[in-house]
Amino acid sequence: MSVYTRIASGLLFPVHERLKGHDSVRRLKVLEETQWWSRERIEALQLENLRLFLADIEVHVPYYKKLFSEHGFKSSELRSIKDIRSIPFLTKSLIKTAGQGMMSSDAGPVTRYNTGGSGGEPLIFYIGKDRKSHDVAAKWRATRWWDVDIGDPEIVLWGSPIELGGQDRVKMVRDRILRSWLLPAFEMSEAKVLKMLKSITSLRPKMLFGYPSALAHIADVAASHGIRLDNLGIKVAFVTSERLYEHQREAIVKAFNCPVANGYGARDAGFLAHECPAGNLHLTAEDILLETVDENGLATEPGIPGEIVVTHMASRDFPFLRYRTGDVGLLSDEQCSCGRGLPLLKEVQGRTTDFIVAEDGTVMHGLALVYTARDIPGVRKFKIIQHSLKRTELMIVCGDGYEKDTAEARIRKDYRGRLGQGVEIEITYCDGIPLEKSGKFRYVVSHVSPARG
Ligand SMILES: [Zn+2]
Question: Which of 220, 273, 336, 426 is 20 to 30 A from 407 (CA-CA)?
């Protein structure tokens, strides 16, 4: 670790956090220890944290005061973590309806967030300092798993124009001090990417942070222009916010000559899980309870996919308790070889909208359709849009080697085989595929919602 990084992570960032009223430095110290605890000890800690959290919101949060009494739920009667299954789920629309009733009567200073978001309903929610400290500390801990630290030169490729708008002077100064450079990733034209490549090769960051689609795209452009990125000394590429596809991981590893570390989290749900160098996603179990539930809202066993439901135990100012994320994933009861006792999330398969519904109602991940499209020679880029049960569109950007007739025949045959023989497969051609407003890229978008029980 360089002297500068040592000063940044040991002094400058801690001062910054103190000025913001965060106790993330103290939190990090705790998390650095608890990650090595045994599974049993971590579960005992979770139960204790859960009790404190529920007892607190039962008294201070009008929404929960009412909900608990309606359902006869008493935090003092909580015996095991599973007991929270009797508390109804929290959804985006419930948060909207509850409004200020979600806020703790003795909340500290909070920051307002508005996730305009693509696809999902907009959501206004608040984050207090306690929760912020916890999320910062959890991210910091996961960063250090990869032999890098706050203060190491970093390039952040981030999309959301909204967040960039909030990029005020103070943040810019902080980023300079912490040697973090932001490159806006919501417009990824070739000319823009070539400019980004110039920044990357001249700044020689130790770490990259961004959407997997953005980093994989940069890797592609670099390869096609013969620009080398494998000799810059980059130690790790952190990716988050989208499903990480295996081919993207391979492209990033090859281009930057560094491992890819996948993270899973969101502004609303928190810093949920992060990959360790042994290749597993560890949950931030000290603060987070993560359940997976089936279409009837019942818990699924480890290894069985279900919608991810999150309880953030440091969210007392504006609680997220059994919050339905709309993501689909599966838990694992295995132990990681890295020695950390933090439980594992086996996989995050994507948003519920990454799933496609066949004519007969079968729900499947769009992955099957993704891989067919990827296999067709000459397909450079593509996107699958399920408009209705009867019509699915495949947008294609094609290049050399693309043979229209054979390609279309193969696509239609394969897609109908999966979606149903009566489904219209529309194939359209374009010069480029627009990104989502946030700058994210999605291979699959379905406007058909699976029938819910
Ligand atoms: Zn591990």
Answer: 220
